[in-house]
Design a protein that fits this description.
Blueprint lengths: L9 H15 L1 H12 L6 E8 L6 H15 L4 E8 L8 H15 L6 E5 H15 L5 E7 H7 L6 E6 L4 H10 L5 E5 L4 H17 L4 E4 L5 H9 L5 E5 L13 H11 L4 E3 L11 E5 L1 H16 L10 E2 L3 E6 H6 L12 E3 L5 H4 L1 H48 L4 H32 L4 E4 L4 E4 L1 H7 L19 H15 L6 E8 L5 E8 L3
Parallel strand pairs: 1-2, 1-3, 3-4, 4-5, 5-11, 6-7, 6-8, 8-9, 12-13
Antiparallel strand pairs: 10-12, 14-15, 16-17
Helix pairs in contact: 3-11, 4-5, 14-15
């Protein structure tokens, strides 16, 4: 853009840039109208966010979102001004001159309370121009590594921020755990200032980690050559994507797109330095997060808005990384989860039925065991009631005999008769309890006298199947006629095996025909007494 051939079109270029910036700032303009009209008791604070790159770049969007969302949580009336230098697309001094003219026009008469910058170009621009056009506001930066921080901020004060720590060590260790035979790490970065700086730091870290690893830069390769290279990878090769936006010929490429394309052609996993690679072909690792960078920078800005001196807040290195792996990529390369180091989250992992419905499953199991205990209790009391019936019959016979023998003794006969009535009343109460317990369990209960083949069915049995009591012959197993023909043999077999002592419980599943002709599945469980 610095070529003399563009000079005749300088006015047109300036107009286009101003129109572009104005169009990207429509929300800001709408916010300005709101600011003038709103009735606010507290002072409105002006926060200027300057991004090095263009709007729409995932890294810029993540940082801006982290900043704005964090500041909105505070009890402040904040008016946000968001600007983009678009440094990756227009890395020229001519672009800077145009932006200076526009920003001077826009901000020279405006009081800025704090400036928050992302990445190197924005920090440098803010420091060089804040006294002239940004009312000397304090600067909070993020997205700048230690080397960039030392070079850009030399000789400046009234600034602080988050120093970006570029360290692929944990990612390479994870890659070695997944593939111990790893030898060659191709490092992808571009030839921009941040790209060269990041590439050098990454290569130095790899060499310091393991002298046996070969760190191979790819910044001097054309896009087509990069694709051909990764397509020919062997099992000992991987690519680590860092800061990459254009190839050696200046061919621009969306950062997510290049990650997807490399993953598409590479026969081995693709690692990434930034979390924007997730869901875009990168397998994962320890990756820097733009959102975390923005959130931490905003936290420092809040301290300054509260009155702290930025010179008293040291710029520090903070962990702004996430540790994640993509399950889809692990599956693609047949990598078991056991190979993933501890402390890493696996995203896109399919949820099992148990995990999805864990509460429901536990409740169902608990209900099943509760029902089982109720049935066991009912069987126990059923046995006791039968014993009581038998004892009652024996007592009745004895009382009859006593009555015949002591007919002359009216008083004694009366006492025996009263006792009989009392026992019958107890029996009636016990039977009522049994009926209530049976109804409350919602179970269908029947018993059979196998000597006479006489069956007794509960009211719930008739209610469910729709028959009247006189419609099913309870004697001699007449009810078997409503068992589904395909299930009859299985039911007989299960019953015979239990009668022969081969199984502890009678347990069978079969269908029974309702009065309407529909078949209903039953799970039948019982025991011979």
């Amino acid at each position: 853009m610095a070529d003399n051939s563009v000079k005749p079109y300088r006015k047109a270029i300036i107009l286009l840039i101003i129109l572009y910036i104005l169009s990207s700032g429509l929300v800001v303009s709408a916010g300005s109208a709101y600011k003038q009209q709103a009735e606010i008791a507290d002072e409105i604070l002006d926060v200027l966010i300057i991004n090095s790159y263009h709007q729409g770049l995932t890294w810029s969007n993540d940082i801006a979102s982290g900043i704005i969302e964090t500041l909105k949580k505070g009890n402040y009336n904040i008016y946000f001004n968001t600007e983009y230098l678009d440094w990756k697309n227009y890395p020229s001094e001519e672009n800077i001159r145009f932006l200076k003219d526009y920003f001077y026009y826009k901000y020279s008469n405006k009081d800025i309370d704090v400036i928050i910058t992302s990445d190197d170009a924005a920090l440098k621009f803010a420091l060089e121009n804040r006294d002239e056009m940004f009312s000397g506001a304090p600067v909070v930066f993020c997205g700048v590594n230690q080397e960039g921080f030392e070079q850009i901020t030399k000789g400046y004060d009234n600034l602080t921020g988050i120093i970006e720590e570029i360290d692929p060590t944990d990612t390479i260790k994870a890659a070695l755990m997944i593939n111990p035979s790893l030898k060659n790490i191709y490092v992808l970065f571009d030839n921009s200032e941040s790209g060269l700086s990041t590439g050098k730091l990454v290569i130095d870290k790899i060499k310091a980690l393991d002298a046996g690893l070969n760190a191979i830069p790819m910044n001097q390769m054309a896009y087509e050559d990069i694709i051909k290279t990764v397509a020919g990878f062997g099992k000992d090769d991987i690519v680590l994507i860092t800061t990459y936006y254009s190839d050696v010929n200046g061919k621009l490429s969306d950062m997510e797109r290049i990650s997807r394309e490399i993953s598409r052609y590479s026969p081995t996993p693709v690692y990434h330095l930034y979390d924007m690679g997730l869901n875009n072909g990168a397998i994962g690792g320890r990756m820097m997060s733009g959102r975390l960078q923005g959130e931490m920078a905003a936290a420092i800005a809040i301290r300054i808005l509260k009155g702290e001196d930025p010179n008293e807040i040291p710029a520090i290195i903070r962990d702004t990384t996430v540790r994640k792996f993509d399950f889809n990529q692990l599956k693609k390369f047949n990598i078991p989860l056991s190979n993933i180091p501890e402390g890493y989250e696996v995203i896109n992992k399919p949820i099992s039925i148990f995990e999805a419905y864990k509460t429901e499953v536990l409740v169902t199991i608990t209900a099943f065991f509760a029902l089982f205990l109720i049935v066991c209790t009912l069987l126990f009391y059923s046995l006791r009631i039968r014993k009581m019936k038998k004892r009652l019959l024996e007592n009745n016979e004895e009382l009859t005999q006593i009555y015949e023998e002591l007919a002359a003794s009216d008083e004694e006969l009366k006492q025996q008769f009263d006792e009989l009535l009392s026992v019958k009343e107890m029996l009636a109460k016990s039977e009522e309890r049994f009926r209530l317990a049976s109804d409350g369990s919602n179970a269908i209960i029947w018993d059979a006298d196998l000597t006479t083949m006489t069956y007794h069915f509960s009211d719930k049995w008739y209610e469910l199947l729709g028959y009247e009591k006189n419609e099913i012959n309870e004697e001699k197993g007449g009810w078997k006629s409503i068992i589904h023909p395909d299930d009859a043999l299985l039911a007989d077999k299960a019953r015979n095996e239990h009668l022969e002592g081969k199984t502890e419980f009678y347990n069978a599943e079969y269908r029974m025909r309702t009065k309407s002709g529909e078949y209903i599945w039953f799970n039948v469980r019982g025991k011979v007494l």
